[in-house]
Structure formats: C-alpha cells, structure tokens
C-alpha cells in the first residue's frame, strides 16, 4: 500500500509544482512598467549649473509620477520646464502615462543641476536617481555630451 500512496503523493506534488510554475510565469497586467532611455547631460558653459535629459517609457497599464531626481553632481536637482518666452520654471511632479512616454528634452521639461560639486565635461558620466510615486527608484548613467549635441529623433 505504500507504493500507491507514494505515487499519489508524487502526483499531487507534481500538480502543485505545475500550478505554481504557471502562476510564476504570468505577468501582472496592472501597474506601471518603466524604462529610461536616451539619458544625457549637456556640458555646461557655466560652472554652477547643468541640464539633463532622458525619456521614460511606461508599457504598463497604470500611470506613474516622476516625483524627483537626485544626484551627487549638485546640491539641488530639480525638474524644470521651458516656457514659450524662453524662461525656465520649476515643474511639479510629472505624469508618466500608461502606454506612453515622458520626454525631457531641450526646450521642454529637463533636469536642472544647481550648485554643481564639479563641472561635468564631455566624456564623463553623471549618475541620477529618478524617484517615482509608485515604482522603485531607477538609477541612470547619463553621458556628458558637448553643448552642441542634438539627439536624433
């Protein structure tokens, strides 16, 4: 009688293992899914501030919000926007729409590094940590590009 019981136990374990594997491989359809690309910092003409840019894609079903950016490059790191008259203003938290993108680019939203610890030069890399309302922080390595750099669109 031990063999049939052992066989039944083995079948039960196999079935449980199969069910567990099936649920482990399913992706949760909810929530944001963020990916950062195209990050760079322009080599600044001044020694006290610089600007950074990147794109955040959200392939998830829920929006998320970029709540802040930190970096050891500067005392203050904030997200700004460029107004139609060319003036800059600090921007509040920015939505990363579900199924969409948040683009930080010249002439629009961008990261400002104010009170630089050092002036970044072309060829170096700047580390930024992006913070979100829902998602875990994302650390980005942004190469420093010449002031004349314009990314391909």
From TrEMBL:
Keywords: Signal. Residues 1-22 form the signal peptide. PANTHER family: BLR7088 PROTEIN, COPPER CHAPERONE PCU(A)C. This is Copper chaperone PCu(A)C. It comes from Actinomadura geliboluensis. The keyword Signal applies.
């Amino acid at each position: 009688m031990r063999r049939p019981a052992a066989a039944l136990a083995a079948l039960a374990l196999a079935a449980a293992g199969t069910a567990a594997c099936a649920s482990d491989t399913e992706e949760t359809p909810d929530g944001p899914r963020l990916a950062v690309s195209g990050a760079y910092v322009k080599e600044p003409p001044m020694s006290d501030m610089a600007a950074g840019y990147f794109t955040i894609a959200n392939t998830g079903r829920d929006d998320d919000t970029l709540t802040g950016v930190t970096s050891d490059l500067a005392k203050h790191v904030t997200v700004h926007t460029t107004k139609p008259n060319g003036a800059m203003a600090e921007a509040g938290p920015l939505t990363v729409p579900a199924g969409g993108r948040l683009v930080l680019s010249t002439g629009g939203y961008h990261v400002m590094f104010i009170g630089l610890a050092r002036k970044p030069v072309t060829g170096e890399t700047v580390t930024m940590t992006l913070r979100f309302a829902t998602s875990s922080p994302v650390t980005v390595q942004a190469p420093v590009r010449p002031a004349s750099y314009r990314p391909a669109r």
